[in-house]
Design goal:
With 326 residues, the protein is an alpha/beta fold. The protein folds into two domains: 2-116 and 292-323, Medium-chain alcohol dehydrogenases, catalytic domain (Quinone Oxidoreductase, Chain A, domain 1, Alpha-Beta Complex), CATH 3.90.180; 126-265, NAD(P)-binding Rossmann-like Domain (Rossmann fold). Helix content is 30%, strand content 27%. The strands form three sheets. Strands 3, 4, 5, 6, 7, 14 and 15 form a seven-stranded mixed beta sheet that branches.
Amino acid sequence: MRAILIDKVDDQYTVGLTDLDPVDLPDGDVTVDVEYSTLNYKDSLALTGASPVVRRFPMVPGVDFAGIVTACDTDRFALGDLVVLNGWGVGETHWGGFAEQARVQGDWLVPLPPGLETRQAMAIGTAGYTAMLCVMALEQHGLTPDSGPILVTGATGGVGSVAVAVLAKLGYHVIATTGKAGEHPYLTRLGASEVLDRAELSEPGRPLGKERWAGAVDSVGSHTLANACASTMYGGTVAACGLAQGMDLPATVMPFILRGVTLAGIDSVNCPMPRRVEAWSRVASDLDVELLEEMSTEVPLEGVVELAARQLRGGIRGRTIVRVKP
């Protein structure tokens, strides 16, 4: 089977397309013929070695995939079932989706929601599933379209693109941020009502700013997250799920103790299965599937290594679907 393989020998980090024997697949009770995967930010960190994402070598990266069950030793699935996987350390400690086959634990797999194809599932991918978890967190803390605008940072990225589209379809007034002036029409087509220059939030700001939004979906971190919290309305919620700008949080307690703002952390890797299934069901119904093509680009398996560095530089818009089969 064809696969992207990362290895590290004597501090020499290597990445490339190779042929592997399926008998070498790791332990698991379900084998899946992988049809599509996707290039996530974490995948690009792994492919470039920019961050120690990979914790076991050799490793097939790819933190998610969608495909067809071809062997099964659990009663959760049957041969021919369509499934999707996100997280659980796949692509980090367990071989992932950048290969034509994957063997994993059945407890990690989610049945593909009715009406979704495997390609569409990877147009959504971990980024879209994470965006839906963020939206669910905002709802869980009582936010509705009547509460006020919702900020989405890093809006041209994978999480941001899906968050904008889902929130807009649900009736929210969406304020999107981007550093790419040429992408304003793209964000407007996804449903953004306003587009801000990311520079407004990316530099050190005041401990407490003017109340501008009822909530936020942030995939950026650092000063951007701090400023998002500082300008959140009384009783609002900020869902934090990423660190594209940095893993630091140079903030104060002021928004939390003076305005009752909630900072909700979103973990997609070890999210409990019932919430995973709910998120995938919600994204299948609350995302306009026609917009997936607008926000997605497809590349063959052999093209992902070249794209990884560009993604880390912010040079990729929306979602990148990886076609695993030739």
